[in-house]
Specification:
Blueprint lengths: L1 H4 L1 H22 L5 H4 L1 E8 L6 H8 L8 E5 L3 E6 L4 H11 L7 E9 L1 H29 L9 H30 L5 H31 L5 H33 L5 H20 L1 H19 L1
Antiparallel strand pairs: 1-3, 1-4, 2-3
Helix pairs in contact: 2-7, 6-7, 6-8, 7-8, 7-10, 7-11, 8-9, 8-10, 9-10, 9-11
Length: about 300
């Protein structure tokens, strides 16, 4: 009952974090990668003694490529991200990186994405997120169709969507900070992370709601708030333990996995943490708050 008793505090914390995330998104913005805005990605590996980033940057200046993002990968490699380039420019870059053949390098990957492909990918990513969200709403509306007292079934769905917004907004807000200070880019893995967070978050919320639904049917208490509180006491150890095991795996992927998946792992870690928080400390308190507002409204009508 502790969570329900102090529900206003937990709801306020969530509102504050979401507002901070929107503020970060508005002021800092996201750094879109070549998957969305078009451009080229080149990965090379040196046979030995990788040069400093500053030296690589200096060697590329005469080619007039504009801004080139140079990221170390592994012990001997670099990933270069830049505007869309021609085959002649591609050859010139490899020549510059190898100091006209004096240094042995290996081209491991070269990807070129035109602006039209990036725009199409952006459109598909938005459609995917919208369709997943609609699917979640329809599923919850169907699953809780027989729950009508004291809170209507559609309100369960509405609260689930509110918690989904919370669970996605905060990791995205954290990603904007990483984009600003660590040059993290929005790519296809970012979209996968958002969709995964949506699925994991709503799953945890539905588990909690389902226990509330069963306890309402069993009439374990006359008070709705007490029913919700007891339901949370029955569910939260399982939710927290399950999330902790997943978070430990994701942290291992972040610290010991390849550099290409570091931000993906960090996004999922944040999504799991705040998804678990919202299912226990936000969704259920919101249900009680809605029920209390509804009860006050009914009293005024009398």
């Amino acid at each position: 009952m502790f969570i329900i008793k102090y529900k206003k505090i937990f709801i306020s914390i969530s509102i504050g974090l979401v507002l901070l995330s929107f503020a970060a998104l508005y002021t800092l913005g996201l750094n879109f990668g070549i998957d969305f805005k078009g451009g080229a990605l080149l990965e090379v590996s040196y046979a030995s003694d990788r040069p400093a980033v500053s030296d690589v940057d200096t060697s590329l200046v005469p080619l007039n490529l504009g801004q080139v993002l140079i990221q170390p990968t592994g012990d001997l490699g670099y990933i270069l991200k830049m505007r869309d380039i021609t085959e002649a420019e591609h050859t010139s870059i490899l020549k510059s990186l190898s100091s006209d053949g004096k240094i042995t390098i290996e081209e491991k990957n070269f990807t070129s994405i035109g602006p039209s492909v990036g725009a199409e990918l952006t459109k598909k990513a938005i459609i995917a997120i919208i369709l997943v969200s609609l699917g979640i709403i329809l599923f919850i509306a169907y699953a809780f169709r027989k729950v009508s007292r004291p809170v209507s079934s559609w309100k369960y769905g509405f609260i689930a969507i509110v918690t989904l917004l919370h669970d996605v907004a905060i990791p995205v807000g954290l990603f904007t900070i990483m984009s600003k200070f660590y040059a993290a880019e929005v790519d296809t893995l970012f979209v996968v992370a958002v969709l995964t967070i949506l699925g994991l978050s709503v799953s945890d919320t539905i588990v909690v709601f389902d226990r509330i639904r069963e306890n309402l049917r069993n009439h374990i208490s006359k008070e709705f708030s007490e029913t919700v509180g007891k339901s949370l006491e029955q569910v939260y150890p399982r939710s927290i333990n399950t999330s902790l095991t997943v978070i430990l795996v994701l942290l291992a992927l972040f610290f010991f996995g390849p550099s290409a998946t570091k931000y993906f792992a960090l996004m999922l870690t944040a999504g799991m943490f705040f998804g678990t928080y919202s299912s226990i400390f936000l969704a259920s308190p919101l249900l009680v708050w809605v029920e209390e507002m509804q009860a006050k409204k009914n009293e005024k009508k009398r």
